[in-house]
Fold phosphoserine phosphatase.
Amino acid sequence: MLKKAFYIIDFDSTFTQVEALDELARISLSKHPDKEAIFQKIEDYTNLAMEGKLSFSESLAQRVKLLEANETHLKQLVTRLKKKVSSSFSRNKAFFKKHADEVLIVSGGFKEFITPVVSQYHIKKENIYANTFVTTGDGKIIDYDHANPLSEEGGKVKLMRQLDLQGDLYGIGDGYSDFQLRESGLIKKFFAFTENIARESIVSKADHVTPSFDEFLYVNNLPRAISYPKNRILCLVIGDVPAESIALLKKDGLSIRHKAAFEEKYVGDVGMILLADGEKIEDDKLKRAVKLKTIGYLGNVKNKFSLQTCNEMGIVVFDDPKANPRNVSFLPKRMIDFMNKGTTYLSCNFPNLQLPAIDKSHRLIHIHKNVPGIMAQINTIFAKHNINIVGQFLMTNATLGYAITDINAEYDKQLFKSLKKIDHTIKFRVLY
């Protein structure tokens, strides 16, 4: 019999993008004449504790003293934090609903601001473990409950020993207190969460580095909003590409490599390529880039690489034939939109298709040669597998057919195998 799994998740810089006490200081001290110096002290105390260079209890005590906060400030903080939930946690709300009994938030932060934020994600209040403030009658924060084990050095270890959960425990966090759970032997694996911050002293000790919550769900074969984590998609940037273009791709969570040329070692693994004007791709390399899904070209693509080869391999190409300055940002956005939603709008070689996002569904892409009867075969396969189609979109040009199908049922690998075996199929993939 399989052991029950529990997921122990940190709050600051993990579930949310920020350190909440740092944010609270920026609210409560906004009119203080020495605010910048105090902000820096609070951030320093935070980082020293997260890196294991200062005891957590000492760090917490010093930060609370400096806050000068009250309950009105807390309300403002909660509003801010709700907008700062980490992207990969936000899009996986369905996971938290399905696993509400197994998810625990364990944090050295405070329930007063954690509970209103995580409760929106179906996390049970009884599964939220954090510190609590001590306030005066007029709502001023003057201290915290020192009897709470989470206020002490090694507090997460002490708490988890008290809880004595029976099963396999997995920890997700960015700081030293999260690693201590692994060091103590209380959890099976520690996942260093680096979507917001990567602390080398913690990353080097982790069982697995997870740049997103999608990655954690993927490696543990758990239900997730996207089928394949973006951090596993290699995006190659070639030549003198503007920093703004690269920043957009990084922001989407892709694994970026910026190189002067298309190096041989990347040919077999690259999923996306963005090229500066004047760069070329040899046809031999293009034909061997079997994972490549889209190319963006910051110039006129004519004679730079073979569009015919791209068609044969199902590679969607976006280019900038008129050297429009706005395409520095527009082209990467088109590539991202294709990877995330399947949209081919303004592609220079594919049928142009704009797609709405459909909730609670799986989106499947089928690229094929434009010959009669393909859609009938696709839908016959769905019928054989008792799959209900939520939405379906098809666009063609002279040579290619591009079909998107949204389904609302669970599927098995045999469905995919059947779709891939249809004659004249060029490429098939699951978006989410």
About this structure: The longest helix spans residues 35-50. The domain at 233-341 is CATH 3.40.50.720 (Rossmann fold).
